[in-house]
TrEMBL record:
Record's keyword annotation contains Transit peptide: no
PROSITE patterns membership: AA_TRNA_LIGASE_II
The protein's name in its UniProt record: asparagine--tRNA ligase
InterPro entries linked to this entry: Aa-tRNA-synt_II, aa-tRNA-synth_II, aa-tRNA-synth_II/BPL/LPL, Asn-tRNA-ligase, Asp/Asn-tRNA-synth_IIb, NA-bd_OB-fold, NA-bd_OB_tRNA
Pfam families listed in its UniProt record: tRNA-synt_2 (PF00152), tRNA_anti-codon (PF01336)
Length: 485
């Protein structure tokens, strides 16, 4: 330790004051053991009186006559650690955005806003930052749209670092829900040879190397980035009664809308031995509640930043969502509600039409601005795997969507057609019998009634935080005509 300090001192004494990156105040207590801590650990107050080292980025600098005050943040919490240093430790390179390593003693703070502060003995400037060129300015609250222009730097703002901590905690909460409820996690493939949704929104995968023979597929069959892990989960649901997957999915939708991405994360679950759609809606509702309550309890300050400053008033919407159980209406009832309303819709609302975002938002409002399940969609609107309700004259499939405030569709799911004859007939009709012969096998050998759903993870974050644009809830958004970094 003493050796290291002596080396630092010699660096300080041989460099000019303008270029020196190291400022040292040699104090006797440097002989004490110094523990490296994260800012959140120091702020917890457990290390009062200890000699600690903190590494992070400067969020504010306030030079005064006798002292210089810094706020240092390392991403471990929204709050920064106040560092108090003697004026002799000030340096022109100690700017907003610069990276520093501070060694000092944890003291009780005289200020009400923070429990502790760090009395600095030594400040090492690890990385300089020119505040004139840096796109974010000290003390300014930049909007999400502005910071979106800097995907390589926006994690350094309070709002986006809060978002990333919430996102990480929400993902952990979802895994926890499934673990606590006996689901086995399956890593479904990212490269696949099937188009689960049959919507043709696929990205094809081929090597970029010139040695690649033009007319031959690398995998000998056309291969794509997965639009959904559902069919692979269905394979597993023939041996495990509860499975889930949580990974990236890809859709070549030519959309720049506020709720579509070309790469997004989907949580998908599949449950065997289901009796009705209620077996699925229960899992969807329980997962939504448990993840949301977990996030609200574990990310108090980060969520507050959104609910107070970014999307004021949204907390009331979230509380209302958690208070009541989610109602269920059928698609046919939904169409009736839309046709009875005085609202003018752009898109048609005849029975058999797909529900558009405007319809979904209206239905959510109509049901009290809380999440609502819509079940039993027209058979012809749903992919081949959806279970036939065998009803007449309005032919429907046992499919369900969960619509939520501000976003519209959050989850899509269905019971799966487990009856071999019906499934084979539908695949034959679509000319897909050979492609999906393995899927028919699942119905030949020990088939059971089963079903599942997928939840768009980014839309979930939009829903609980009230964020309008999906591009603001994913670290690196990919959408048509944009793949930055
Ligand atoms: O409704 P979808 O297409 O359902 C499926 O893919 C099923 N195979 C899932 C299953 O049953 N295992 O997609 C599920 C959810 C949607 O409700 C939506 O929240 C989200 O995925 N989603 C998107 N999110 C962002 N950008 C896009 N382009 C999305 N497309 C769907």
């Amino acid at each position: 330790m003493l050796q290291a300090v002596a080396k630092t001192l010699s660096v300080a004494s041989t460099t000019s004051s303008a270029s020196r990156g190291v400022l040292v105040c040699f104090r006797s207590y440097c002989k004490k053991t110094t523990t490296k801590l994260r800012v959140s650990e120091v702020l917890s107050g457990a290390e009062l009186g200890a000699s600690v080292k903190v590494q992070g980025w400067v969020r504010s600098v306030r030079p005064q006559k006798a002292n210089v005050f810094l706020h240092v943040n390392d991403g471990s919490s929204l709050q920064s650690l106040q560092v108090v240093a003697g004026a002799e430790l000030n340096d022109p390179l100690l700017t907003f955005g610069s990276a520093v390593e501070v060694t000092g003693t944890v003291k009780k703070s005289p200020h009400k806003k923070q429990p502790v502060e760090l009395e600095a003995a030594q400040i090492h400037i690890v990385g300089e930052c020119n505040p004139v060129d840096f796109p974010f300015k000290i003390k300014e609250r930049h909007g999400l749209e502005y910071i979106r222009q800097f995907p390589h730097l926006r994690c350094r703002t309070n709002a986006f670092s809060s978002l990333l901590r919430i996102r990480s905690e929400a993902a952990a909460a979802i895994h926890l829900y499934f673990k606590d409820n006996g689901f086995v996690q399956i890593n479904t493939p990212i490269i696949t040879s099937n188009d689960c949704e049959g919507a043709g929104e696929l990205f094809q995968v081929e090597p970029s190397s010139p040695e690649h023979v033009e007319d031959e597929n690398f995998f000998s069959v056309p291969a794509f980035l997965s639009v959904s892990g559902q069919l692979h989960l269905e394979v597993m649901s023939g041996a495990f009664s509860r499975v889930y997957t949580f990974g990236p999915t890809f859709r070549a939708e030519n959309s720049q809308s506020r709720r579509h991405l070309a790469e997004f994360y989907m949580v998908e679950a599949e449950v065997s031995f289901t009796k009705s759609l209620e077996d699925l809606t229960k899992v969807m509702e329980d997962m939504f509640r448990s993840a949301t309550e977990h996030v609200l309890a574990h990310c108090v300050e980060d969520v507050d930043l959104f609910h107070k400053h970014v999307t004021p008033g949204h907390r009331d919407t979230v509380d209302a969502m958690l208070k009541k159980s989610f109602p269920t209406i059928t698609y046919t009832e939904a169409i009736d509600i839309l046709n009875r309303s005085s609202e003018t819709f752009v898109f048609q609302t005849d029975w058999g039409c797909d529900l558009k975002t405007e319809h979904e938002k209206y239905l959510v409002k109509h049901c009290g601005n809380i999440p609502v399940f819509v079940t039993d969609y027209p058979y012809d609107l749903k992919p081949f795997y959806a279970r036939d309700n065998l009803d007449h004259p309005q032919h429907t499939a046992a499919a369900v969507d969960l619509l939520v405030p501000g976003v519209g569709e959050l989850c899509g799911g269905s019971l799966r057609e487990e009856r071999l004859g019906l499934l084979r007939a539908r695949l034959e009709e679509a000319g897909l019998e050979d492609t999906y012969s393995w899927y028919l096998d699942l119905r030949r050998f020990g088939s059971v009634p089963h079903g599942g759903f997928g939840l768009g993870f980014e839309r979930y974050l939009q829903c609980i935080l009230g964020v309008d644009n999906i591009k603001d809830v994913i670290p690196f958004p990919r959408f048509s005509h944009s793949c930055l970094l």
